[in-house]
């Protein structure tokens, strides 16, 4: 936390962050806007193209169905060879007695229908008087007349006998060997020479099968994928044709877009229905997603390059200034025999020249003004060198720490800071009681060195209850020996572990529990330790715990002290009970002055 705070307060950190933000934020916003605009344009362009394709398909399908409607009307208008039959001819007599349609034999008329369009595969005519079947086939396949669904077709046409009928796509199951799929078109031959009646007089019915290749030639341009859907529906919403065989079924198809499918619909007037396509957006925009991903990757690469360049530029700018700071620390320690290496003539270089000139002038001033005084006090300094006074030791440790920090060795600097804090805490005499906060700070400094020494294999955790005040007074240096015991005897044998400290208020007492998850102790060993803590006189074992026990009892009374519990392979717990006591001026004067 301290290292991060120092880093964020650095001028070069602020410069790097500003440099990165100024470049990264506009780049990100502009790239995002560009990708979204490009995506929206492509999606809109693709949708418009697909809509035009569906419109074109609906037009072609409608034209084809209209053409077959015209072909079916040849029974009334005549043949393609130019012959036109009069409307007053008795069609009933021609069909039933002469077996003719428009003065042409039925078989010849069917053959004319068969070859009027390349997609017509089979033509049938059913005479109403005796249900006699006439047919012409384009292939040499064997027709099974009993398998023809004539009754179904005729029943469907009774609802609107004067209109053309379109039957949904189906397999040619009425042929012995055929794997083709066709749609069937039917029209009744009505004798219009008779007087107009409510129910028309149907002489016969013409049916012809049209290969679904006729539709496929229009739909192939869509290049449908596995998730796409295409339907041709009649006016009642029944399936007529599509890439999935749902012949004759009523299909519920949504014409609205959703999150996964793009829906497009156009009417087919000849069928009084519509064509509906539902296209998977995932498949439709897959290439767009790939392009978008590539753009995002390019943005990330640019951002990384920008960050690296910002950090590199900041380091290049920071290195000369760090060198000046290090030299300043050296001068602060009393060593004037130093200078800054100047490698450029910019502002940083001029700062280095100025620092070198300052050192030279300072050295000359000292030589001229203080040389005599220094010689007079040389003897006193030599005597003082043999005495390690606390404040000199603190200053020296601080200089070493600063050198470590400025040399990018923060861990060494933090260790020296922890050691310096511990020395101050231990060497300050004349106080038996200190604030709980001060004792915990000292313990954290001590345990930090333990963590570094043993490569962070040990961890210290503290929990302080909400009703505990950190200003309460506790005996000085009573926690460290117990934590040291936990590490030495509980954690080190197993190589790693955690020491936990829990502090809570228990009635009128302060209860402190030190627990470790180390190797633990057998019941007999716990009983021996408890007995030794209760003994009078100098300790023969567990000196640290015995000393803490004696100090607490001498300061607080016999009702206070330690208690130990442990279980093998689980850990050990030491509970300390102290009276609740506020820190007074005579107890913590030095602590507040730190």
TrEMBL record:
CDD domains: HAMP. Residues 479-582 form the Histidine kinase domain. It comes from the Bacteria. Gene3D superfamilies: 6.10.340.10, Histidine kinase-like ATPase, C-terminal domain. The chain crosses the membrane at residues 12-35, 294-313. GO terms for molecular function: protein histidine kinase activity. It is found in: Cell membrane. Its EC number is 2.7.13.3. It is an enzyme of class 2 (transferase). It catalyses: ATP + protein L-histidine = ADP + protein N-phospho-L-histidine. It is a multi-pass membrane protein. Keywords: ATP-binding, Cell membrane, Kinase, Membrane, Nucleotide-binding, Phosphoprotein, Transferase, Transmembrane, Transmembrane helix, Two-component regulatory system. This is histidine kinase. It comes from Paenibacillus favisporus. The lineage of its organism: Bacteria, Bacillati, Bacillota, Bacilli, Bacillales.
């Amino acid at each position: 936390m301290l290292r991060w705070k120092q880093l964020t307060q650095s001028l070069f950190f602020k410069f790097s962050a500003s440099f990165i933000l100024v470049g990264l934020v506009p780049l990100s916003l502009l790239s995002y806007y560009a990708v979204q605009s490009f995506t929206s344009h492509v999606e809109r362009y693709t949708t418009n193209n697909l809509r035009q394709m569906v419109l074109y398909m609906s037009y072609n399908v409608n034209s084809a169905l209209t053409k077959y409607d015209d072909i079916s009307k040849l029974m009334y208008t005549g043949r393609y060879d130019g012959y036109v039959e009069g409307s007053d001819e008795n069609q009933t007599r021609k069909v039933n007695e002469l077996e003719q349609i428009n003065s042409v034999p039925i078989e010849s008329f069917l053959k004319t229908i068969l070859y009027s369009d390349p997609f017509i595969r089979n033509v049938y005519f059913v005479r109403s008087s005796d249900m006699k079947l006439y047919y012409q086939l384009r292939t040499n396949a064997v027709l099974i007349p009993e398998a023809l669904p004539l009754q179904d077709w005729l029943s469907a046409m009774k609802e609107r006998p004067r209109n053309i009928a379109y039957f949904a796509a189906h397999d040619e199951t009425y042929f012995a060997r055929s794997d083709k799929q066709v749609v069937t078109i039917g029209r009744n031959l009505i004798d219009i020479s008779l007087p107009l009646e409510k129910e028309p007089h149907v002489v016969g019915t013409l049916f012809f099968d049209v290969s679904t290749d006729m539709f496929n030639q229009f739909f192939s341009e869509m290049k449908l994928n596995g998730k796409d859907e295409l339907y041709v529906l009649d006016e009642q919403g029944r399936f007529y044709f599509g890439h999935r065989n749902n012949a004759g079924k009523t299909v519920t198809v949504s014409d609205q877009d959703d999150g996964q499918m793009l829906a497009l619909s156009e009417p087919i007037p000849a069928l009084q229905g519509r064509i509906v396509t539902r296209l998977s957006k995932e498949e439709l925009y897959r290439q767009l997603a790939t392009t978008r991903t590539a753009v995002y990757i390019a943005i990330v690469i640019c951002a990384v390059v920008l960050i690296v360049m910002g950090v590199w530029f900041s380091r290049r700018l920071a290195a000369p200034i760090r060198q000046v700071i290090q030299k300043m620390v050296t001068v602060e320690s009393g060593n004037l025999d130093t200078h800054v290496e100047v490698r450029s003539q910019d502002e940083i270089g001029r700062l280095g020249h100025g620092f070198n000139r300052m050192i030279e002038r300072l050295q000359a001033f000292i030589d001229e003004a203080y040389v005599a005084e220094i010689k007079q006090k040389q003897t006193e300094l030599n005597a003082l060198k043999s005495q390690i006074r606390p404040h000199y030791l603190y200053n020296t440790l601080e200089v070493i720490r600063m050198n470590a920090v400025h040399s990018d060795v923060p861990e060494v600097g933090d260790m020296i800071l922890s050691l310096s804090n511990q020395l101050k805490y231990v060497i300050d005499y004349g106080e038996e009681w200190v604030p709980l906060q001060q004792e915990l700070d000292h313990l954290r400094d001590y345990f930090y060195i333990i963590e570094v020494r043993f490569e962070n294999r040990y961890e210290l955790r503290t929990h302080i209850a909400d009703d505990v005040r950190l200003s309460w007074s506790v005996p000085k240096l009573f926690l460290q020996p117990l934590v040291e015991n936990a590490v030495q005897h509980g954690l080190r044998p197993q190589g790693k572990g955690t020491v936990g400290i829990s502090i809570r208020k228990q009635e009128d007492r302060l209860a402190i529990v030190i627990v470790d998850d180390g190797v633990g102790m057998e019941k007999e060993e716990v009983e021996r330790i408890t007995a030794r803590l209760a003994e009078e006189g100098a300790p023969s074992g567990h000196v640290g715990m015995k000393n803490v026990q004696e100090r607490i009892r001498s300061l607080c009374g016999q009702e206070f002290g330690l208690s130990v519990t442990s279980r093998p392979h689980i850990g050990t717990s030491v509970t300390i009970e102290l009276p609740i006591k506020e820190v007074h001026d005579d107890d913590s004067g030095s602590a507040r002055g730190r």
